């Protein structure tokens, strides 16, 4: 019973999928895109989905907000109501391992689209769009001489104050590992138990939250002074002129993808949309409003010079961090969840 | 639920073995068995089937093969036992607080004049109808480091540095008790409201002190409300996700949180289902135990 009532979000997602199914029955010439909602999807809609609908004369139906659980069930039961889904690297790995995604027809995409994409991002089952970065952000009033490394984040004597992070869902294990071993090139594999010992060291100096929105809110309220956060979450706060800044040193980048679920009703339409949206200058349009960086390096040619430094993976800061090993993380999620529970009962 | 008191209870005679709860309704239904069919279908469809699915899921892996890995993982990791224990303890503490507070409030409400009772009942019902997420968020606003409570205490010079409430047992217990209190009040109130006040007068008339009349006549009659409220509060309390997730820290990890992580993060649905089954079994057993050993009639009514 608890399996079903544990998250209210589920209801919203179910409603979203329900709406899709109502719309899916209408047209043949349409593509149904399921994305992550919020500010991110609003911008996707404005710069990608709606312009495509206008340019092609086809119907683009959007659905927002899903979680991995109901997405997986949707595909498994063959009741597929989306043609294209915005997925994290973890989800791409998990779903493709179970054979729940259609292969991407890379040959069907224009040369101009593919030449700027790093080879390891040309996934068999997913097209890379943007990347976000897990960064450190801090209050510049508390720390005029900001913390520079994750070791500083853990140094409560040199930098007194509260730390904030998302808890159970994504504990800062890699950051803890980087605090112990600053050689980011050899971050993976790291010892999960040691990382949790390191996290436990912070004790009362770290406040864990249920979601990123709350972590950011805590920083804005002065509840915490230093946080682990996806860079895009900081955009509104920085735009408001709050005394906060991002430290890009030792950041970790996470790619996001478009993928076609197995059994999608309009998978050809989904490919047609991909071969339109994949142009570097189209992908680049999301950069300024979201601060998520394009994965296609060619896109930087269409990004204003003032925006580029804010983006994960931009040429200036890319070498300060690295791409997270989402395959390794995916394989060790159960261990991380277990270690979290062990830390909880210490 | 109007409870007509039977003469045995009043006289304090040894309590006869009596079917509890739905026993009496069962007799009526035997006369009209067809009435049961829609209910039966409803239960099988919406409770029976999902339950069986969860049991099934707990012994099959992603590929659909039989496995006991979920149960092995639970029994090999003492941390999960501790989380289960904490979850149960949290449920019991919440239950105790809501029971004491709820009983008092309900007792006060039934004794009030009708108009006032209705107005005050609205104060119980309005939070009951509003979103649990919003009500939990409100506690975040109140208990935060720069929240209402800390600001108040700081302004009046009662404390020098803000007290960290968020991420403590206190915050979780308070918010849980607050969230679940209406369930307890309503359960007890509905039963109390059905008690014939003349019984108390009769007891007084027969020489009982007010306290004695309350303890031996009124209290035993409220037992169904106490039981119903306690079950509901305990079950909801240990199954609550939002409150421990938002107001607790790592040390307030409850089993529902672990289940959610398994579904969405670790993506191990076998283990998630296993934990659900274990939680269900443990609560089921606790209820059986409570039914068996906590005989309120014996505890309060029969002891003279």
- Rg result of chain B: 23 Å
Separation, N- and C-terminal Cα atoms of chain A? 28 Å
**Could you say which structural class the secondary elements and strand pairing of chain A correspond to?**
alpha/beta
What name does the CATH topology of chain B carry? MetI-like fold
* Strand/helix succession of chain A: HHEHEHEHEHEHEHHEHEHEHHHEEHH
The total beta strand count of chain A reads 11
Q: What global shape of chain A is seen? A: globular
* Low-confidence spans of chain B: 1-24
Classify the secondary structure makeup of chain B into a structural class: mainly alpha
- Can you count the beta strands of chain B? 0
Architecture blueprint of SSEs:
The complex is a heterodimer of chains A (346) and B (304).
Chain A: H1 2-5, H2 9-24, E1 30-35, H3 38-56, E2 59-64, H4 68-76, E3 84-88, H5 89-97, E4 101-102, H6 111-114, E5 127-139, H7 150-153, E6 163-166, H8 173-180, H9 192-201, E7 206-209, H10 212-221, E8 226-230, H11 235-239, E9 244-261, H12 267-277, H13 280-284, H14 287-290, E10 293-294, E11 322-323, H15 326-331, H16 333-344
Parallel strand pairs in A: 1-2, 1-3, 6-7, 6-8, 9-11
Antiparallel strand pairs in A: 3-9, 4-9, 5-8, 5-9, 5-10
Chain B: H1 7-11, H2 23-31, H3 36-58, H4 69-76, H5 78-111, H6 114-129, H7 132-143, H8 148-155, H9 169-193, H10 198-205, H11 210-221, H12 223-239, H13 242-247, H14 255-264, H15 269-293, H16 296-302
Helix pairs in contact in B: 3-15, 4-15, 5-9, 5-12, 6-9, 9-12, 10-11, 11-16, 14-15
């Amino acid at each position: 019973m608890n399996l079903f009532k544990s998250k209210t979000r589920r209801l919203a997602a179910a409603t979203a999928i329900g709406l899709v199914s109502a719309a899916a029955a209408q047209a043949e010439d349409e593509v149904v895109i399921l994305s992550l909602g919020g500010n991110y999807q609003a911008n996707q809609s404005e710069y990608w989905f709606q312009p495509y609908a206008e340019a092609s004369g086809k119907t683009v139906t959007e659905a927002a907000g899903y979680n991995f659980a109901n997405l997986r069930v949707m595909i498994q039961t063959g009741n597929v109501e989306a043609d294209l889904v915005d997925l994290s690297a973890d989800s791409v790995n998990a779903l493709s391992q179970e054979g729940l995604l259609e292969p991407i027809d890379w040959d069907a995409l224009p040369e101009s689209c593919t030449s700027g994409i790093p080879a390891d991002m040309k996934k068999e089952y997913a097209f890379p769009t943007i990347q976000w970065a897990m960064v450190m952000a801090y209050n510049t009033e508390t720390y005029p001489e900001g913390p520079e490394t994750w070791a500083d984040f853990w140094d409560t004597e040199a930098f007194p104050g509260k730390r904030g992070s998302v808890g159970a869902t994504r504990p800062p294990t890699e950051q803890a590992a980087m605090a112990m071993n600053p050689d980011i090139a050899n971050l993976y594999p790291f010892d999960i138990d040691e990382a949790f010992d390191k996290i436990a060291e912070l004790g009362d100096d770290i406040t864990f939250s249920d979601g990123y929105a709350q972590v950011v809110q805590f920083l804005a309220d002065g509840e915490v002074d230093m946080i682990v956060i996806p860079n895009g979450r900081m955009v509104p706060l920085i735009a408001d002129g709050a005394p906060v800044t991002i430290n890009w040193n030792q950041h970790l980048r996470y790619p996001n993808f478009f993928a076609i679920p197995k059994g999608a009703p309009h998978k050809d339409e989904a490919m047609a949309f991909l071969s339109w949206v994949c142009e570097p200058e189209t992908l680049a349009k999301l950069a300024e409003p979201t601060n998520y960086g394009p994965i296609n390096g060619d896109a930087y040619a269409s990004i204003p010079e003032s925006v580029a430094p804010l983006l994960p993976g931009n040429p200036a800061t890319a070498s300060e961090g690295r791409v997270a090993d989402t395959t390794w993380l995916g394989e060790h999620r159960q261990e991380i969840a277990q270690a979290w529970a062990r830390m909880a009962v210490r | 639920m109007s409870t007509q008191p039977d003469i045995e209870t009043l006289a304090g005679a040894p309590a006869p073995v009596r079917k509890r709860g739905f026993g009496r309704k069962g007799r009526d239904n035997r006369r009209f068995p067809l009435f049961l069919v829609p209910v039966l279908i409803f239960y099988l469809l919406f409770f029976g089937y999902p339950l069986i699915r969860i049991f099934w899921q707990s012994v099959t892996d992603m590929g659909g093969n039989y496995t006991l890995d979920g149960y092995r993982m639970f029994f090999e990791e003492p941390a999960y036992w501790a989380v289960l224990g904490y979850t149960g303890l949290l449920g019991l503490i919440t239950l105790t607080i809501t029971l004491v507070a709820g009983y008092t409030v309900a007792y006060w409400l039934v004794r009030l004049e009708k108009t006032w009772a209705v107005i005050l009942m609205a104060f119980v019902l309005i939070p009951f109808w509003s979103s649990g997420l919003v009500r939990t968020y409100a506690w975040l606003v109140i208990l935060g480091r720069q929240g209402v409570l800390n600001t108040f205490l700081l302004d009046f010079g009662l404390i020098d540095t803000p007290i960290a409430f968020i991420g403590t047992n206190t915050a979780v217990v308070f918010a849980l008790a607050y969230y679940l209190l209406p369930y307890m009040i309503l359960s007890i109130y509905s039963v109390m409201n059905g008690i014939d006040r003349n019984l108390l007068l009769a007891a007084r008339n027969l020489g009982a002190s007010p306290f004695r009349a309350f303890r031996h006549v009124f209290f035993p009659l409220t037992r169904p409300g106490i039981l119903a409220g306690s079950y509901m509060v305990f079950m909801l309390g240990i199954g609550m996700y939002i409150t421990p997730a938002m107001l607790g820290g790592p040390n307030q990890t409850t089993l529902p949180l672990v289940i959610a992580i398994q579904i969405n993060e670790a993506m191990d649905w076998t283990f998630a289902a296993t934990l659900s089954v274990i939680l269900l079994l443990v609560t089921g057993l606790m209820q059986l135990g409570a039914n068996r050993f906590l005989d309120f009639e014996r505890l309060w009514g029969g002891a003279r």
